[in-house]
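Input.
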Amino acid sequence: MRGNTLFSSVIWALPFTGIILSMAICPLIAPRLWSQHYGKIIAAWCFGLLAFVFIISGWKPTFSLSLHSLNDHYLPFIILVAGLYSIAGGIKIRIQTPGTPLSNTIFLGLGSLLASVLGTTGAAMVLIRPFMEMNAHRNIRRHQIMFFIFSVANIGGSLTPIGDPPLYIGFLQGVPFFWTTLHLLFPFLAIFIPLMIIFYWVDFYFYRKEDPITERFHGEYAPASKERLIEIDGIPNILAILGVIALVIISSLWPQKFVTWSDWTVGDAIRNIGIIIIALSSYKLTSPLIRIDNNFDWHPVQEIAKIFAGIFITVTPVIEMLKLGNNGPFHTLSAFLMPNGAPKNNGFFWIAGGLSAWLDNAPTYLVFFHFAGGDAGTLTTTFAKTLTAISAGAVFMGALTYIGNAPNFMIKSIAEESGIKMPSFFGYIAWSAVILLPLLWLVSFFFS
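Output.
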């Protein structure tokens, strides 16, 4: 594991920190400025970083940083997110039952399991709209969206390598497919079951505070006797999502370099081009009435594209500093995680997870995978508990912030487009800390 020695000072973390603070503070003190110009603010931090790299090292490192960040990592990320979002917009699920604490808990439970099959992004994009429609008669709904992020968009993806990007990175590094299922099952149950119990009682509390059930509730949301419980329009798009998942899985079969100037493999090119073709075909062939019924628009993807372009560029120096290990600014972290050369499992869980809440969790997972030795054969046998700790931390703690995992911010944006007022950046962290940190502490006992 070697990092770029250009980024040997913590000062290079300032642009990334600036973006995080801008996202957290600007919507609170200057909401109008942020909503109209957030893309320009993020671009300013990026250009500031690239300008300093250019001044210090010239155009080659500047170009290399831009290419590595955008072409090798950001482009595959946004292709997958935008592709799944577009395809999911052509699926209309109607659930003919109103949202009650029990039905909502069942929905989140099943949706979380589906996330390990469709991936957290795919499951979130397919299920968020029907979940909101189930609860359209409810006045207090933002807690439901937050628990949806906790469960479907994050924790639910922990049982297979296609469930969440960090686990897929592990699969590409040689971790067997079903190793993930076997070793993360009990940590998953330890956090998932209490989370569903907490959600039921939180939703029950707010349900009791609602106004009395109205005539509109009876007429619009109570199913007629001959109606099916679930109706689905756009079924071919479910096959399209499965096609995207298949492309993700098989892309590892072609590890040869695609071009010399990029880290893309032949499999990466097949996957990315294939996703674009499937998404465009889905968009052209799906009835526009389904997308109209879904209130589909591109604003959430545009927001994700701008924000994560900035994050991917400015996070690169932070990742490089972590890769430097004992020779970098985080040498005390390396010494803490590997005292006397033996991995400290609880430390890996909390630190890999904590950083995954703020950095992109896939490269963060990869860094700590190499911190622990980097050999899949050893990490899945002798140090299986260490790899389990890294995996659980990266996936579970992606729920702690809006930027911890790709679907989080998109779900927030979709909910706000539908009129649900979501917590601020720090407000969400307060909710997630109160609810998730005690459960994460419980999970940490698996790694003691």
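Residues 34-447 form one domain.
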